[in-house]
Amino acid sequence: MTENNDTICAIATAPGVGGIAVIRISGPKAIEITGSIWKGKKLAEAATHTAHLGNIIDRETNEVLDQGIATVFRAPASFTGEDTVELSVHGSQWIQAQTINLLIRNGCRLAQAGEFTRRAFASGKMDLTEAEAVADVIAATSRASHRVAMSQMRGQFSQRLSTLRTQMLELASLLELELDFSEEDVEFADRKRLLDIANDTLSEVTRLAESFATGDAIRRGVPVAIIGRPNVGKSSILNQLLNDSRAIVSDIPGTTRDTIEDTTDIGGTVFRFIDTAGLRTTSDPVENLGIQRAWEKIADARIILWVITPDELSETASFLPALTTHKHPDAKIIPVINKTDLYPSHTATGIPDITAHPNVSSPLGISAKTGQGLQELRQSLIAASGTDTTTGDIIITNARHYEALTAAADSLRRAISGLTTTLAADLIAQDIRETIHHLSSITGAITTPDILSTIFSRFCIGK
Ligand SMILES: Nc1nc2c(ncn2[C@@H]2O[C@H](COP(=O)(O)OP(=O)(O)OP(=O)(O)O)[C@@H](O)[C@H]2O)c(=O)[nH]1
Ligand SMILES: [Mg+2]
């Protein structure tokens, strides 16, 4: 916890010139210090959540710097939980800088990055996950990343964690009871019930941990590798999807050597497209490096656009085994048959043995030249992205949460295997305590929960 005896200030709006800039002041002397550079209604007498028109003045020179609005929030009813003033001034950089100077001269300290939110956490306004989500909300660049961050900021993840933690505390208290009375003739909670609770919790913890793959894709862009033989039109498809002449296109096979990456928003999800060197056997060492890199990108991608031309359909089935062994097991393959404009009689069906494979969708005929089929391709990408944020399922996006959940799942698995064997209750209790510790570390709650008091609150000892 930080020492919050000092009062901090910072410009809260984006750097640069704007119509209006907001300067935030928070801490025990926020109202007093702002009052000392303010001419208008006495801020010391202002009620909480009220806004006042006035002038910012330098009392040493009596010069009026600007006319602005001061909004007063009194502790604890503010974002930080402390007394806070938000000064709206005209957005000139001179005014912003001078206002900050005046505040510092009168006793404020310049806030560190994230310090307002850190204070909100310290004063119990929010837990760690909610505080972290504030940053994610600000950083969100797509509907999907915004939605996930908002859900976390509004405490949905915290609530779920708190439920899981309560289940674990119940488990721990049942086990402790077994320990405390092991010398006496008392009826133990049967281990079947303990196992049920543990398994329920484990499946939820595992689901949350697994959602990180999706959450990370949402935050950084769903990686899509565009792959195939040379000259099939991979770079042309990249350019179409980006609406930009990002990659060089030519009729010389082997044009793309290095990988080319760029992101774009499709239907509220950010995709990160990776154009790669055409896959073929070649003696050119530079091209070979590019091909090696293409295989690496295949391994990292969540979606693989496998570009084929109608004249090479018969060869495709033989390539599939190599592709499926290199890709991530969950990655989806969309076979894209390009240059259909050159083969008007062609139909996208007719590739044998492809869709029988798991995670391979049915082939899509397109023309990167005419744009035909591009809209369907975008729809397929959205469907394959697995980033549906409308289901209300909690999706985690934070690596710290992922690590803690994974650690919680590990210790819980140990507890479960202990419960299924005849392991002593105190050893199992240790694994449960570890699980609770990892879950609590996510929200930043006190990590040494008082298990005994939980026992007494749930069971009457005299009964
Ligand atoms: N007719 C037609 N030509 C296309 C289509 N898509 C691409 N081309 C042409 O095919 C040639 C190769 O296109 P690229 O996009 O460079 O192909 P690539 O797969 O990136 O090739 P490499 O980088 O060499 O592996 C170019 O001349 C394109 O103009 C299409 O849908 N129809
Ligand atoms: Mg290319």
What does this structure look like?
The chain is of the alpha/beta class. The protein folds into three domains: 8-125, Probable tRNA modification gtpase trme, domain 1 (Gyrase A, domain 2); 143-214 and 398-458, Four Helix Bundle (Hemerythrin (Met), subunit A); 224-385, Rossmann fold (3-Layer(aba) Sandwich), CATH 3.40.50.300. Helix content is 44%, strand content 17%. It is built from 14 helices and 13 strands. The chain has helices at 30-36, 93-105, 115-122, 128-139, 143-153, 156-180, 191-220, 234-242, 285-300, 313-326, 374-385, 399-420, 425-443, 451-458; strands spanning 8-11, 20-26, 38-40, 50-58, 63-73, 84-90, 109-110, 222-228, 260-266, 269-275, 303-308, 332-337, 364-365. A seven-stranded mixed beta sheet has the order 3-4-5-6-2-1-7, covered by helices on one side. A six-stranded mixed beta sheet has the order 9-10-8-11-12-13, sandwiched between helices. It is flat and about 85 Å long. The structure holds guanosine-5'-triphosphate and magnesium ion (MG).
Shape: flat
Alpha-beta content class: alpha/beta
CATH superfamily of the largest domain: P-loop containing nucleotide triphosphate hydrolases
- Number of helices, counting only DSSP H or I runs of 4 residues or more: 14
User: How helical, in percent, are the residues?
Assistant: 40-55%
